[in-house]
Amino acid sequence: MAQRFPERVTIVTGGGSGLGRSMALRFAKEGAKVVVADVDGPRANEVADAIISEGGEALSQTTDVTNADDVKAMVAAVRNTFGAADILVNNAAKATDADFSDLTEEAWDADVATTLKGPFLCSQAVLVDMTKRGSGTILNISSVNALAYFGNEAYSAAKAGLLSLTRSLAVRYGPLGIRVNAIAPGTLKTQAWEERIKNNPDVLDQVSKWYPLGRVGDPDDVVGAALFLASDEAAWISGVVLPIEGALTAGNLQMVEDIMRRRPSV
Q: Which residues are catalytically annotated?
């Protein structure tokens, strides 16, 4: 089967772990030259090395997406190594678990900076080359938290803002041949849950009951959709958000069952 992204330069932010790592590895298998950008340099290096060991092409970049100079330096390094980026995956995010009443201004700013300002800075930086070339794809990794209330107020507000940014860029840059889409994953079994699992080993099993498909997701459950939206197969799809969440936002079966059990007899 032909590869979907031969020679296409693809940047994945937050590519050192979790969903970002899975996407970076899969883009590489599909022929992309992958740039693994992560604030954690050793993790970025590990993913890039894994790609290279399998015969792919990769570049690791220690990048703080909240820092404009860092982002510009990363994009310049990509251009000098592989050429201008064809695909940007805005995946880096941050979420504090603090209760809203205890949420500090600093924690709010940190979540919003990584989750929303980062995609703004990265998109702005790659669009310089994309607009000159007249083509390019930006994929924003949002969350079901952007669609309904599931806690993490700062992170959720930032992810909702990312959907607005997705629509704005799709409309503004569509005439220049650039597509911008978003996906909204539900709960994924990644390192982000490690601390919660330490405190409650059964937490993911408890969360699973709220998903109509009966389980939380794995990164691989999301990667296929990411590859599709970034590929030529989605050439006429732009400005959309695709929820990937096991029917979580379709309705609440647990609530329905509770209501039915408590319905008074007539």
A: 155, 159
